[in-house]
């Protein structure tokens, strides 16, 4: 709870990653509700009166996050709607989460039009999913075209999306050393690059399984 409080205060101050922390708190609250309802049969530690105030605290945090009003920095500067439409679309194509595209489309009528671009959703589907997965979840629009937007959200429910990380660990199969991608370690192999394997967070956890 102390860690969560620090995270919430950070989000309230920076006004960034709001949706992520809201989803985290909602998942936690739902889990606690299920544990409290099953008291006596669950692994919930402590008296129920110990957890109820914490659940109320989570609700209070959620309310504070819902009340956030995004403030624009002082001074006049160029904003996203000031850019040419082609550049705005180019920025949308850099987003890897369809929910972000939908939210961005709610900002203005111009962005709403761009957020419905068929090519945008097609590229997003092809980025996260294989051709075989896409062929199994084809959806046609009323006009007889593939509805890539609906297909994306259907595919998300059926398959995991492509994982994306700002920085990753790499594992050397020759000398069994972990290092950050882009850094060097004193490898004795003839071709060190061929020995490196990128690790996702789950791959890193799997290293400690016996």
What are its keywords?
10 helices, single chain, 210 residues
Structural write-up:
- By secondary structure, the protein is mainly alpha-helical.
- The protein has ten helices and three strands, in the order H-H-H-H-H-H-H-H-H-E-E-E-H.
- It has a three-stranded antiparallel beta sheet with strand order 2-1-3.
- The protein starts with a helix and ends with a helix.
Please render the helix and strand layout as text.
Blueprint: H1 2-14, H2 18-37, H3 48-66, H4 85-92, H5 98-105, H6 109-115, H7 118-128, H8 131-135, H9 148-158, E1 169-172, E2 178-180, E3 196-199, H10 201-206
Antiparallel strand pairs: 1-2, 1-3
Order of helices and strands: HHHHHHHHHEEEH
Structural class designation: mainly alpha
Instruction: Give the assembly state of these chains.
Output: single chain
| Strand order of the biggest β-sheet | 2-1-3
Q: Report mean pLDDT, rounded to a whole number.
A: 84
Percentage of residues assigned to helices? 40-55%
- Low-pLDDT parts are none
How many helical stretches? 10
Separation of termini?
A: 31 Å
Q: Beta-strand percentage?
A: 5-15%
Short description:
By secondary structure, this protein is mainly α.
């Amino acid at each position: 709870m102390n860690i969560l409080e620090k995270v919430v205060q950070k989000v309230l101050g920076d006004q960034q990653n709001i949706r992520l922390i809201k989803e985290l708190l909602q998942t936690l609250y739902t889990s606690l509700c299920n544990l409290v309802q099953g008291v006596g049969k669950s692994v919930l530690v402590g008296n129920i009166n110990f957890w109820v105030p914490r659940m109320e605290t989570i609700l209070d945090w959620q309310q504070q996050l819902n009340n956030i009003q995004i403030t624009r920095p002082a001074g006049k500067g160029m904003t996203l709607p000031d850019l040419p439409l082609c550049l705005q679309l180019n920025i949308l194509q850099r987003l890897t989460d369809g929910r972000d595209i939908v939210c961005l489309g709610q900002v203005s009528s111009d962005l709403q039009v761009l957020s419905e671009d068929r090519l945008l959703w097609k590229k997003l589907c092809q980025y996260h999913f294989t051709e075989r997965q896409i062929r199994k979840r084809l959806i046609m629009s009323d006009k007889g075209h593939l509805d890539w937007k609906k297909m994306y959200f259907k595919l998300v429910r059926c398959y995991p999306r492509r994982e994306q990380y700002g920085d990753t660990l790499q594992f050397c199969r020759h000398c069994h050393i972990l290092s950050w991608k882009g850094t060097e370690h004193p490898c004795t192999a003839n071709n060190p690059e061929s020995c490196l394997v990128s690790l996702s967070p789950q791959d890193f956890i799997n290293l400690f399984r016996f």
